[in-house]
Amino acid sequence: MSAPTSSLTPPEGARPPVRHPDAPAPGELLGAHYDQCFGCGRDQAHGLHLETRAGEGVSVTAVFTVKAAHQGAPGLAHGGVLATALDETIGSLSWVLRTIAVTGRLETDYVLPVPVDTELHLDARVTAVHGRKIYGTATGRIGAPDGPVAVRANALFIEVKVDHFIENGRDTEIRAALEDPDQVRVARAFEVNP
Ligand SMILES: CCCCCCCCCC(=O)SCCNC(=O)CCNC(=O)[C@H](O)C(C)(C)COP(=O)(O)OP(=O)(O)OC[C@H]1O[C@@H](n2cnc3c(N)ncnc32)[C@H](O)[C@@H]1OP(=O)(O)O
Question: Which residues cross the membrane (predicted)?
Fold first, then answer.
């Protein structure tokens, strides 16, 4: 492995992202990629239950309602939970690129405290691609898509093969996911090209 770059700025030679021709249409709900995902999974009791939609170009939007289970300080969202919401939203750009990728670096700015019960409106887009490296950025706004900015993130995602999950995941969950009789759910748990 070469030494990771210390910057989230795309290097010279990086190219603009390309929306996959089979990407979900702008406005389409992406749904959970895996029911147990802490970011979007429907069956994950304390998860964030993010609802994410494809956007124009290589972008997505998402809504996260902050619950009491997500507190850090009394009545306020935990910073790590907010980082998760940003990470998940940027990760969902995989569906628009149709490329499987995982987070390599994530840098967050916390601008405003986010109270429990807030609807945090997130938007994310890919800014550049360089080889397997995908550069993304996201913003979370309070109360509305044009509300005050509460959090921001820049991230570097690294493209991986589906084997990344099968080889590294715990056997119990990998087997359960692969044995799901619903073949669409099986595909969605591991890939973005079902
Ligand atoms: C299915 C759809 C899912 C959508 C939702 C996603 C949910 C949210 C996303 C996540 O939270 S994913 C979970 C958190 N992330 C991880 O668990 C990743 C753990 N890390 C790894 O598995 C490996 O380190 C990784 C796959 C990221 C990279 O290992 P590799 O051996 O494949 O890559 P390699 O080391 O060859 O590096 C490839 C390039 O990326 C660069 N790179 C790798 N890791 C880096 C890093 N951390 N920071 C900066 N650069 C990095 C590396 O320098 C190099 O650049 P160059 O091509 O220019 O030489």
Answer: none
- The interface predicted TM-score of the complex, written ipTM, equals 0.96
CB atoms within 10 A of CB 171: 7
For atom 11 of ligand 1, the residue with the nearest CA is 103
Mean pLDDT in order along the chain per 10 residues (194 residues): 71 97 96 93 94 98 98 98 98 95 97 98 98 98 98 98 92 90 82 64
Specify the residue with its C-alpha closest to ligand 1, atom 21.
Answer: 104
Q: Which residues line ligand 1 (CB under 6 A)?
A: 1-2, 4-5, 33, 39, 87-88, 91-92, 94, 100, 102-105, 131-133, 156, 158, 160, 192
Atom of ligand 1 nearest to the CA of 168: 22
The per-residue pLDDT for range 137-184, each reduced to its tens digit, is: 999 999 999 999 999 999 999 999 989 998 999 999 999 888 888 887
- CB burial of 138-162 (b: ≥16 within 10 Å; e: otherwise) equals bbbbbeeeeeeebbbbbbbbbbeee
Q: 4: CA distance to ligand 1 center in Å?
A: 9
In the chain, domain spans: 23-160, 162-194
Question: Of 145, 128, 126, 161, which is closest to residue 64 (Cα–Cα)?
Answer: 145
pTM of the model: 0.95
